[in-house]
């Protein structure tokens, strides 16, 4: 067996397919672009959908990649098995309607067995095939595989519901009898069964059918190849590692964790090894996820990152690591992956800062969660129960980040258990919510074959002219059919040249009209999109008969186009201003350029302060007032990058690119329309800034006339405020409002003092009324105070003066009932719990509550029941 590093193996795979005519696609961001069906990029094919569904025609129909991916459906098994990971790399080769089974199989066998490449012993390879796929069997045997190394598997059919589907073949490596974990006669002891001896390394999918809504299958017009080889598994074979974790992809992280731990060593204790593996896996995943723009939060991707960080921290605690440590692993991850992912080390300081901040946050939450767990056990003890409910266990998991196994471990140490079935029910509810939030989008569509067939050339001339007088109508599409003419109704047109911009990069499509030779409007252009072969596809409402081959005048709505141009240029100025003010870590996460406003999404850790937002707005306006020339140069990508151009989206640029620069301030790749000088924008005004997702912020803004109107409206509102506050000058409004706020604060303080005085007077009366109940000194009373806050203050006074064993107070506030129970420390030790008492008496006010053993509170909707609650408290204590 060759001795190869993970970097060498990755490079060898890509080089092999490059020599077989494939284009190497770079690893895309883990955060999907324009794909609501995915939370993360979870495979190599996920980034190829645009090619397989026909929305984009690749320049080369043979592609290969090493794609970083995240899967989170089995996090709980990470560290406990040899192969489970959250982040992994998927090596793949893809054919978009080019080669098929014969080539895919023969090349796979060549890569795996040729001495020039992997050089594996062919006797150690087994292939599973779909029983009805006789072609796959034939090609494997032709490549050199003996029939006894081919295994029929009914499951070898890739099908995700409606859309592309087909048989697949899986390749297994026989690690030898030393890896057997089943008896020889076990029914699962075969390649493809549940035996660690046979390691699946490659899956090749032959996408050849369309799964129709009626559950029938029809052949696809263009058959495709989609393959996936897990880099981590392949490395474990080359490096003779028992599991993926004993390879150069993980061991450096594990060794650094050993240094940080309390005299723990990998390979000495099974539970410790699980924790080392969890930390190594999760450190990789969070580093790459945050590097691609996702940030910790309570929803979506951010929730996944937060969960991974917390699981790793808990594992660190079990290894004796008390201080923040996870952020220290970022440089180690960067060094391991540097050859293919240099960006990790380039932004290691930012990544460490984000992770360290989250570590600090969770270490504070950890103590709160343990406190809740102790309260739960106290409540169980008081009621002679032994099982924490699934709902409470899920709260510990969801709110405090406690994995189920951690809750189980703490409970087991104290002789308690957890309702794991109930926990699973709550977990499923959360998964259902997440699934619904992603929507009901198809994961992959079927190619729109008609558009793929249309290859007539079409030229966009809208960069320099908004009217074309003699555009030839090349193609008419009505109801997915090519026709020669259309009289009225909806249709799609392709012209030999057009001034209409096709929606792209956030810039909306142009609108306008089409005129015939008589100057009559014969169609309205309502939308323009890019067809798979690059033509501008016009969606139109036909008003008068139109014919293929005739020439027409195409006229863009100039006012609409001009306003869009201004807002598009503004997004470039805004993008650079955000980088200048907030830091280079900000990246565009989406944009929308409409005629009346612009929307710009960007990645940023935390909210944007008012001061920074003001700096950004001022910096954009500074460039407008400088009257910078806006120039566009068409060049190649390499030259554009040397010019300092920023690429806003992954993999959308061709060999020829347009570089748009606003003076020396902003330089970006962009295929959109722009003004000639920044002074055309007139004015820029931010109208809102908000968070829209995990680590993604959104700015909405207006320019030109819309900005002027916005400011006029703001001024009108300010004048109304001045009038309402009886202020003579608008500039004096802030001072006047501050004065009013101080007056309100003083009045509130006076009111609070009066309420406290009244409450103390009532309390003195209540505190004097001590009852003897079942051998206990008890004070009860319904008093008039402002709410729960003052009840707690009275309880503090009661406790400081040791006035009785039990205190029960109630009050009505804003139409609601409040109850508070306090128990002396001596009586808590004797077994009396405030929480038990509050649960009993809160029924009288149609409410509920809880708290600590020495103090609890409740709220309810029935103030009339407060007196009955006092009686119920006495009855409860009498029966103890």
UniProtKB/TrEMBL annotation:
Keywords from UniProt, A to Z, are: Aminoacyl-tRNA synthetase, ATP-binding, Coiled coil, Cytoplasm, Ligase, Metal-binding, Nucleotide-binding, Protein biosynthesis, RNA-binding, tRNA-binding, Zinc
Residues the entry annotates as binding Zn(2+) = 568, 572, 670, 674
Cellular localization per UniProt: Cytoplasm
| Highest taxon above the source species | Bacteria
Q: What Enzyme Commission number(s) appear in the record?
A: 6.1.1.7
What residue stretches are annotated with the Alanyl-transfer RNA synthetases family profile domain?
4-713
Coiled-coil regions in this chain? 730-764
InterPro entries linked to this entry: aa-tRNA-synth_II/BPL/LPL, Ala-tRNA-lgiase_IIc, Ala-tRNA-ligase_IIc_anticod-bd, Ala-tRNA-synth_IIc_core, Ala-tRNA-synth_IIc_N, Ala-tRNA_ligase, Ala_tRNA_ligase_euk/bac, DHHA1_dom
- Which Pfam families does this one have? DHHA1, tRNA-synt_2c, tRNA_SAD
User: Which cofactor(s) are needed, names only?
Assistant: Zn(2+)
The region called Disordered is annotated at: 846-865
GO molecular function per UniProt: alanine-tRNA ligase activity
Keyword Protein biosynthesis appears in the UniProt entry: yes
The UniProt entry's sequence similarity note says:
Belongs to the class-II aminoacyl-tRNA synthetase family.
Matching HAMAP family: Ala_tRNA_synth_B (MF_00036_B)
Q: Which NCBIfam families match?
A: alaS
Per the record, the domain comment is:
Consists of three domains; the N-terminal catalytic domain, the editing domain and the C-terminal C-Ala domain. The editing domain removes incorrectly charged amino acids, while the C-Ala domain, along with tRNA(Ala), serves as a bridge to cooperatively bring together the editing and aminoacylation centers thus stimulating deacylation of misacylated tRNAs.
Q: What does this protein do?
A: Catalyzes the attachment of alanine to tRNA(Ala) in a two-step reaction: alanine is first activated by ATP to form Ala-AMP and then transferred to the acceptor end of tRNA(Ala). Also edits incorrectly charged Ser-tRNA(Ala) and Gly-tRNA(Ala) via its editing domain.
This protein is called what? Alanine--tRNA ligase
Organism expressing this protein natively: Apilactobacillus apisilvae
| Gene from which the chain derives | alaS
């Amino acid at each position: 067996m060759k001795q190869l590093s993970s970097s060498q193996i990755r490079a060898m795979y890509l080089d092999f397919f490059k020599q077989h005519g494939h284009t190497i696609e770079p690893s895309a961001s883990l955060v999907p672009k324009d794909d609501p069906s995915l939370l993360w990029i979870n495979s190599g094919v996920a980034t190829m959908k645009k090619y397989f569904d026909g929305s984009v025609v690749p320049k080369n129909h043979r592609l290969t990649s090493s794609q970083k991916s995240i899967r989170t459906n089995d996090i709980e098994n990470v560290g406990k098995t040899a192969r489970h990971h959250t982040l992994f790399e998927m090596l793949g080769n893809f054919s978009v309607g080019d080669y098929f089974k014969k080539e895919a199989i023969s090349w796979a066998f060549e890569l795996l067995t040729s001495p020039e490449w992997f050089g594996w012993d062919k006797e150690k390879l087994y292939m599973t095939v779909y029983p009805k796929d006789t072609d796959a069997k034939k090609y494997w045997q032709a490549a050199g595989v003996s029939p006894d190394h081919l295994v029929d598997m009914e499951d070898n059919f890739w099908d995700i519901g409606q859309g592309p589907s087909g048989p697949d073949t899986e390749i297994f490596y026989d690690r030898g009898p030393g890896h057997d974990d089943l008896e020889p006669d076990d029914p699962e002891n075969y390649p493809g069964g549940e035996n660690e001896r046979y390691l699946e390394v490659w899956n090749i999918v032959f996408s050849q059918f369309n799964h129709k809504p009626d559950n029938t299958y029809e052949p696809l017009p263009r058959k495709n190849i989609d393959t996936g080889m897990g880099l981590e598994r392949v490395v474990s074979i080359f490096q003779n590692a028992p599991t993926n974790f004993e390879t150069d992809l993980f061991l450096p992280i594990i060794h650094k964790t050993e240094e940080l731990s309390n005299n723990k060593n990998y390979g000495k204790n099974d539970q410790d090894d699980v924790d080392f593996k969890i930390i190594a896996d999760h450190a990789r995943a969070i580093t790459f996820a945050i590097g691609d723009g996702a940030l910790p939060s309570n929803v979506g991707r951010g929730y996944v990152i937060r969960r991974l960080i917390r699981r790793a921290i808990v594992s660190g605690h079990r290894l004796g690591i008390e201080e923040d440590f996870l952020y220290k692993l970022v440089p180690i991850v960067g060094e391991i992956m540097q050859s293919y992912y240099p960006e990790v080390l380039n932004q290691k300081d930012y990544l460490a800062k984000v992770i360290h901040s989250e570590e600090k946050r969770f270490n504070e939450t950890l103590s709160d969660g343990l406190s809740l767990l102790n309260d739960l056990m106290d409540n169980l003890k008081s009621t002679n129960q032994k099982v924490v409910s699934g709902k409470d266990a899920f709260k510990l998991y969801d709110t405090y980040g406690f994995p189920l196994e951690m809750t189980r471990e703490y409970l087991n140490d104290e002789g308690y258990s957890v309702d794991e079935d109930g926990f699973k029910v709550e977990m499923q509810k959360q998964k259902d919510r997440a699934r619904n939030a992603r929507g009901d989008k198809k994961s992959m569509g079927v190619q729109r074959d008609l558009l793929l067939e249309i290859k007539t050339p079409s030229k966009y001339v809208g960069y320099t002219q908004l009217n074309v007088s003699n555009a030839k109508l090349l193609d008419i599409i009505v109801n997915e059919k090519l026709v020669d003419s259309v009289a009225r109704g909806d249709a799609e047109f392709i012209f030999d040249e057009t001034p209409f911009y096709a929606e792209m990069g956030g810039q909306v499509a142009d609108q306008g009209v089409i005129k015939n030779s008589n100057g009559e409007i014969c169609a309205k252009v309502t939308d323009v999109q890019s067809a798979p072969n690059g033509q501008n596809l016009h969606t139109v409402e036909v008003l008068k008969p139109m014919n293929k081959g005739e020439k027409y005048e195409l006229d863009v709505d100039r006012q609409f186009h001009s306003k869009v141009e201004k807002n598009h240029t503004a997004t470039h100025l805004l993008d650079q201003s955000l980088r200048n003010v907030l830091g280079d870590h900000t990246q565009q996460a989406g944009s929308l350029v409409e005629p009346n406003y612009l929307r710009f999404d960007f990645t940023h850790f935390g909210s944007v302060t008012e001061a920074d937002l003001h700096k950004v707005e001022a910096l954009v306006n500074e460039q407008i007032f400088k009257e910078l020339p806006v120039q566009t140069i068409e060049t190649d990508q390499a030259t554009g990058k040397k010019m300092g151009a920023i690429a806003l989206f992954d993999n959308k640029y061709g060999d020829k690119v347009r570089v748009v620069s606003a003076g020396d301030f902003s330089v970006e790749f962009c295929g959109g329309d722009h003004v000639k000088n920044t002074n055309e924008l007139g004015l820029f005004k931010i109208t809102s800034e908000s968070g829209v997702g995990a680590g993604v912020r959104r700015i909405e803004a207006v320019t030109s006339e819309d900005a002027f109107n916005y400011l006029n409206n703001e001024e009108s509102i300010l004048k109304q405020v001045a009038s309402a506050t009886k202020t003579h000058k608008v500039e004096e409004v802030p001072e006047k409002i501050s004065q009013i706020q101080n007056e309100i604060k003083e009045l509130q303080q006076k009111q609070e003092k009066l309420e406290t005085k009244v409450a103390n007077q009532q309390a003195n009366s209540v505190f004097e009324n001590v009852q003897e109940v079942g051998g206990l000194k008890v004070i009860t009373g319904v008093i008039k105070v402002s709410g729960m806050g003052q009840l707690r203050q009275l309880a503090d006074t009661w406790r400081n003066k040791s006035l009785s064993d039990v205190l029960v107070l109630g009050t009505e506030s804003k139409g609601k009932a409040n109850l508070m129970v306090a128990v002396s420390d001596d009586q808590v030790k004797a077994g009396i719990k405030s929480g038990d008492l509050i649960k009993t008496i809160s029924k009288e006010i149609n409410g509920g509550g809880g708290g600590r053993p020495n103090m609890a509170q409740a709220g309810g909707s029935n103030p009339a029941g407060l007196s009955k609650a006092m009686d119920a408290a006495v009855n409860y204590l009498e029966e103890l």
